Amino acid sequence: MSALYRLSRSSCRRLTPISASYISFANPQSHPNPDPYSNPCPKHDSKPSIGHNVKLFNQYFNFRNPYIASQYALFSTSPDIVQGSNHENGGKDDEHNGILKKDSEKTWVDLYVPEGVRPYAKLARLDRPIGTYLLGWPCMWSIALAAEPGNLPDFKMLALFGCGALLLRGAGCTVNDLFDRDFDGRVERTKLRPIACGVLTPFQGIAFLGVQLLLGLGILLQLNNYSRILGASSLLLVFTYPLMKRVTYWPQAYLGLAFNYGAILGWAAVRGSLDPFIVLPLYASGICWTLVYDTIYAHQDKDDDLKVGMKSTALRFGDSTKEWISGFGFLCISGLALSGYNADLAWPYYTCLAASSGQLAWQIYTLDCSNRADCNRKFVSNKWFGALIFSGIVFGRLVS
Questions:
Q1: Rounded CA gap, 121 and 134, in Å?
Q2: Residue range 342-390, pLDDT digits in tens
Q3: How much is the pTM?
Q4: How far is CA 68 from CA 58, 79, 100, 125, in A?
Q5: Contact at 8 Å (CB) between 137 and 386?
Q6: How far apart are CA 161 and CA 349, in angstroms?
Q7: What pLDDT, in 10s, does the model give residues 259-315?
Q8: Closest by alpha carbon to 336, among 314, 322, 362, 355?
């Protein structure tokens, strides 16, 4: 109680903050929080938030000095005070780990989605759109490549595939969380995902998956018969990917097969057939690109993956990660160059390809595999790589 004594010495002296350890004696389970996305988590024990601890502290000790009470409350609830920050994983679990965040750091799901719907939005990762970008870009590349020389890509197809990428990515995340619900609870970055945390039951997750697949079917039926068959076959890759982390150190390669399937499907949706000399190099380059960015992403979880027995290329490559992903990056750019050459794209494409090569080289050269925040930044930056390639294809097709 020496901290209490120091705190009460004088209201005119600068406040000495009380460590959270002095007030963490309170049992958080006896004070349930109505917000399912704040501590404590229903399934996994964790520290109560600073604001919650301060409220309990004041309840138990009833400060009689109003200046001290108000100053300590100001310290404890200031949005600029961050304790135990989890910025190394991109801030994904900041709110759940007892960290007070600025409103500007919260996603639109936290701010605008009704509380009852919020768990489903987070299950589909609507608050983390990077996965939709990475799934959608290969589709857009292929659609733009399939455009006739001198023409812009088919905007209707771009819109359909954009919606499809959003739905399929959400369905894939739901499948992944259903399979990994026991493992996710033991990994720091994922322990508060809705199913792992217990906010949603597996049955609710399956029902939500059914809704997403039904909506995706509606989009698939807008395509030609050839594309419908190809699109339906991709579901096998989506549903089996989560199992790969248990059996091979190359789940990122398998993810590449699933995430870049749009490179095949987009061309087929526009042309009604396949040109293997254009589509296959594009598909292969997308797989190599996935091996780059998802290996970087996997370095965020490598310590936890070792504990729970999951496998990844981050663990497979280890200290040689930069050498491996440099090789995959070279193969990615080579495949894109070959695909563009076979499609008779004009010079703007190769200008953008050079710029995207520089972006990829920057990622690899400056990557700090031991820094989770840096890994997340480099991973997220791949949306710009995809945008550069798409821009090059569009301009290259217009000029050709």
A1: 18
A2: 999 999 999 999 999 999 999 999 999 999 999 999 999 999 999 999 9
A3: 0.74
A4: 11, 19, 21, 42
A5: yes
A6: 22
A7: 999 999 999 999 999 999 999 999 999 999 999 999 999 999 998 888 888 999 999
A8: 355
